[in-house]
């Protein structure tokens, strides 16, 4: 079971300089978390909380998040909507692809007067007859259900047969609860038989047999899928062919001859400038990434920046002065500028070739611009000069 720890939250709060007390957005998706805990006490300023693609079976311990506006619990194991009454700022709730069968539990959201968007797509309750009409009437503050806008006509239609619709929903819930209890017994027995049949197999064969067999769509199966997927990720080597083992890929920074490779494992944008006397490298590092997570190493023929364990390395054509190289980072944009003076600067002459200078001098000699200009007779008509009335000429300034 994966627990929500302070270390995990700080790891996901790099954009806030690892400070969790003032954190406004937190993403803990795809962590195989089974229980919501500590978040309400440690991160009370949260406005957005992503918990999708986990193994959470119950909504709990979030009542202290008074400023939370968006809660995403999609792709979990939730079967009932509960414990959200304290989220007075909640505007959007996403429960897509869960196992909510108790549709009447949406009535607990009536006190969330700021709730405008609700997503229940992929839950068993969406198959109930009259599902949409019931939710629209039960939660009059909603403006959108499953991404579809709720119109005035929808509200009038839903309010007509609300009592009869709710009674039908209750009966469907009861039937779903019976089917769900039978499913639990059936799946438990199936998993027990499976464990018995593979007890003599190794871990890889067990995983292969599990992924090949058919299974029911339920929280128990989803937990088993997460278990086997985790074991597959933790396996240090992967098998190929006739049982042979291939080691994991290692990063190569240099060729066999010692020449440094140029690579961008960090996948960041950069700008490189080659001047006569220096190299300039501008790395577009993430704005809120702490500088302590960055290491820069300048060598005579290459420059390397390690960003959170990811390597950015650039091979240089000319040798540089490592002791005079500088590295500065902007506190506004987060970009890092590395200036590397060249060991042997190139003196490139931009003097104009003599042949072009001679042509220009000859052209100037043929044009005589000396003396005064007779501005009164610049324009001539029919070979005769035209008299100009100086009083009609406007002042120059």
TrEMBL record:
SUPFAM superfamilies: HSP20-like chaperones, L domain-like. It is found in: Cell projection, Cilium; Cytoplasm. GO terms for cellular component: cilium; cytoplasm. The keyword Repeat applies. Its main location: other. The keyword Repeat applies. Residues 224-342 form the Dynein axonemal assembly factor 11-like CS domain. Keywords: Cell projection, Cilium, Cytoplasm, Leucine-rich repeat, Repeat. It holds the Pfam family CS_DNAAF11_C. GO terms for biological process: outer dynein arm assembly. Belongs to the tilB family. This is Leucine-rich repeat-containing protein 6. The gene is 6033232.
